[in-house]
Amino acid sequence: MVGFTFETLNKSTYKIVQDDILRELPFIYVKVYPTLLALIDTGCGPNHFREEAVEETSIRKWLESNLDKAGQLTYKDPGTGETVNKHWLVFITHTHYDHIGGLFEFADDSTIFISGYSQEYILKDLGCNSLCCAFNIPTPKFNVGHWLQHREHLTFRGVDLKLEALLTPGHTPDEIALYDSEEKVLFAGDSLYEQLPIYIIETSDMMDYIKSMNEVLGYVIKKNEFGPRVVTAAGHMTHDRDSELLIQEHIKCFWDTIAGKSVLTNQVEMRGLNVLTYMNETKNVGFMCVESKLRAAMAFYGFEWDVPALPATAPKV
Ligand SMILES: [Zn+2]
Fold first, then answer.
1. Is the pTM value of this prediction over 0.70?
2. For residue 138, what are the CA distances in angstroms to 101, 105, 130, 143?
3. Which residue in 95, 205, 212, 305 is deepest, having the highest Cβ count within 10 Å?
């Protein structure tokens, strides 16, 4: 039984999907360089497969065997003539459990890049903030090798990675997007995807989200002025959608949701909180909001309407 898929995203990058038990189906990406490998997120970890009889549960072993088959795992050191493994750079789009579950496999010998927006958020209570505690799974231990700065152009040991980091707090404080200028791909983590709502949960901030997305929209519009248009490769569901149109769709849905004009499609109690899902007319994008977060944004932007209270008979999840 196979627990991951491995496919080509573009000429330098592969896309991997983990078939996990909670159906998060996290998207993981690997960009290949002559002497380096850049991994974007690490999935849910080895104990979260839908099927029990998965042959290879290690994301690292799975990646390395597939990269080896493609002749991309190693390179010949020009100094010594020896064949050596490429060094892993691991970028975490945000530290939710379904993005850091496999991170422990890279903790000893790789370089880990995480948002420098709020180091306290990562260092103080990662167990809760990552939802590892909520799902009763061990919180991975790792050291951050590089705290990313907003609009940082990334190089490593003299190699231009052709990647730029954008700090995009909103879904979480540590959310980032990574822009690959070589392939014109925006890796957007959990800020932008389709068919499912963006989660606005306990550690999310809707005001930060819209500020981040407005800035990313301006960034993408500038990149679209020349050459092929930017596409979004997200943490779930979406890997090749036109970025500008996708961001605009989310921004429109955001304002419709704040103004009470989106469609309420679901309402549940989650961790004792009233959680409401609003989608746009086509049900392509939407927001699943903890009531208090939605109310805070409505108050901030001066909107007033009745958020439905959780009915006494609401199903528990
Ligand atoms: Zn997330």
1. yes
2. 9, 13, 10, 16
3. 95
- Of 84, 92, 99, nearest to 236 by C-alpha is 99
Domain of 23, CATH number, reads: 3.60.15.10
pLDDT at 137: 83
Residue 301 located in a structural domain: no
**Which domain, by its residues, includes 111?**
4-183
- pLDDT 10s digits, 64-90: 999 999 999 999 999 999 999 999 999
* C-alpha 243 – ligand 1 centre gap (Å): 19
Task: State whether the Cα torsion 128-130-135-141 is positive or negative.
Answer: negative
What is the CA(136)–ligand 1 centre distance, in A? 16
pLDDT digits (tens, 9 = 90+) for 145-188: 999 999 999 999 999 999 999 999 999 999 999 999 999 999 99
Distance 71 CA to ligand 1 centre (A): 33
Report if residue 127 sits inside a domain.
yes
Picking from 304, 312, 271, the residue whose alpha carbon sits closest to that of residue 288 is 271
Give the whole-angstrom CA distance, residue 267 versus residue 172. Answer: 21
- Reported confidence tier of residue 220, pLDDT bands at 50, 70, 90: very high
**Local confidence band at 238 (pLDDT 50, 70, 90 cut-offs):** very high
118 within a domain of the structure (yes/no): yes
Question: 131 CA distance to ligand 1 centroid (A)?
Answer: 9
Instruction: Supply 73's token pair.
Output: 């795992």
Quick count: other Cβ atoms within 10 Å of Cβ 56? 17
